[in-house]
Each structure stands twice: as C-alpha cells, then as structure tokens.
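=== Given protein ===
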Amino acid sequence: AAVPTGNYISYTTTITVADSITSSTFATTTVWNTTVSTNGTTTAATTTDTGVVVTGTRVNNSTATATATTPANSQPCNGYTEFCSRQYSNITMVTAHNSPFVKKNNIASNQVYKVETQLEDGVRMLSFEAHYYEDDIYLCHSSCDLLNVGTLESYLTTVTDWIKENPYDVVTILIVNSDYVSPWNFTSPIENSGLIDYVYEPSIIPMSLNDWPTLSEMILDGKRAVVFMDYQANQTAIPYILDEFTQMWETPFSPLNTSFPCTVQRPPGITAAQAEDRMYMINHNLNIEIEFEGIDILVPDSAQINDTNAVSGYGSLGLMANNCRAKWDRPPNFLLVDYYNDGNFQGSVFEVAAQMNNVTYNGKCCGGSKSAGSRM
C-alpha cells in the first residue's frame, strides 16, 4: 500500500487570528515534559461543587501581580495533576490508531475496545480513516466494503458525550481524509454531534511548538477537543479543523518491519529546524500487507503485538520512543499504536507514555475503569 500524500500547505509567515494568551509575542522557555513553574501571571479557578483547583500557568517573562500563594492543584488534567500546567505541546499521549475499527473476527480491526473504553483507559488521541460514501462521511478501513463501522457523526456523538462527562480532559482527534474531499463535508458531523461546542480554535496559523496553551487554559476555556486533518484542511475558512502537517510531522507511515526509524516522512522536505518547531507523532503500528478484492491493504501484525507494544526490547514502543527522544532532544507528542491494551503487560503503552512524561503511571488500563474525580 502506498504512503498517503497530497497537497502540503506552506506558510511564509504566521497568521494571527486573534489576541490570546497563546500569542507567540510571549517570550517562553519550555522544559520538555517536566512540570514547570512560572514567574508570570497565574490564573486559577475553583469548582464550587468539589473544591478542587485547576491552576493555569505558563512560563513567560511577564510580571506577577498577585501576592497570594497559588493553591496547590489537586485535580488531574488528562489523568495527572502534573499536566495541568504543561503546554499541550509538552505532553506525550497514546494514540489509538483507527480508533473506531473494532469488530470481532475482522482482520481489518485495529482495536479491541470501543472508543468510550479507550478514553476511560487513558487514550487521548483518536485517529481514523474517513471516507465519502453514499453522500455522507463514513468510517471505513481502506474500503467501505472491507470494514464500515458507521458514520462520522455517530462516532463523534459518542466522543462528545464522553467529553461532556469528563470536564478535566482534553481529547485530540486526527481525521485521515482518505478521499481528499473538501473539509466542508466534515462540518455537519462536527456540528450535529455537539463537538462544535468544545473544539479548540488556535489564535495563530500555524501554531509553533511554544504557541500552544496549557491544558488548564484549554479546560478553563471549555475548548477541550483539538481536531486535526491530514489533507485539505483550510484553517482560514474552518478554523477548528487544523491542518496536521504544518503543526505536526510523522515518522514513516504504517511500518512493515521492526526498525521503526525516527525520521520525518510527512510532510516531505522540511528542514530539521522546521521539524524541531513542530509536534511529532511516531507511527508504531506494525503491519502486514494483504490483498482484498484486488486491493493491497495494510492490517495489524497481531502475531507480534505484545512485543511491538512493549516497554523495552527490539521493535518495542519503549525503544522507539527513547530513540526518538534522543534524536530530537524531546519526547514524541503522540504514540500511535494498534491494540493499545496489548503489550508485555496490560497498559505497557501507557507506561511508555508516563516515562516520556516523567510521571508515575497510574495503572488504570485496561477495560474502562472510571475515575469519579474527573467526571461531572
């Protein structure tokens, strides 16, 4: 199967959409994946029903105006209190590759648990193929004749329901626009599902690594769904569907061997300096190629999944994440995997993410354990 390609957007300068705390006019210093302190302004909000505190902090060079001690944060953001003060671009998240493709005994499936369980277990990026089929957007693996799990609107409705019930979580969605259709085809599913109420709209196009807000800022603003699209996004027309490749790069697509290099494949031709100024995703989903009705398609190599999703060892997620951290001097932002619940133990992919984030894994995987403290 060929590597997807299309038109890649290139900006000679940034476009400022509106004044915001995320404006790049702030002088920032980032400490990658470690909790940071600030000598600038601190925003705090207290929920009156529980008394927990979410603090919104950024590293900047402005002068503090408050003299009172900032309350200690007791409310986790995306599962960890340490994440609340970190920028969105300074967190490593597990990505469920082809999140909707859950169907027993279907070779084209990529996950075991449905999306609600994925989110309960700690997955914070959901990726999927979207196809234009029967005058609507459907979620299909390679072909809607091979595996069709329904409409995008239905899937996003489920995701939105979870976001509503979990007010301290930020969820990222990566839409693979498989048929390269206009992004306007995706606005109705986003609006009708209710996701439109939560979508994040950047103040700058494109967002560089240091332009992103902290999780607590996104949570306090209520804009907790970040939507990326790989091809055909037009942020000046639809500001909440973010162009992926001007703000993130990927390692080689759907690998067929266990070498898992940390090189930039998409977008092609960017410089090292450009790569260093964007988030990045490592594709750690080992595949085999099969033929279906004359079409070559890639499906998960389930025979090696425990080794692929392991914390250590040749071909493991842990080894690739560490190699990429060493090569780029910062951890990956997104760890894309099939069957996230498998590995050398249940939750091994989340252990790798925790190591990248320099936090202690909370061990909640797998099967959808609920945390009442993070829910409405």
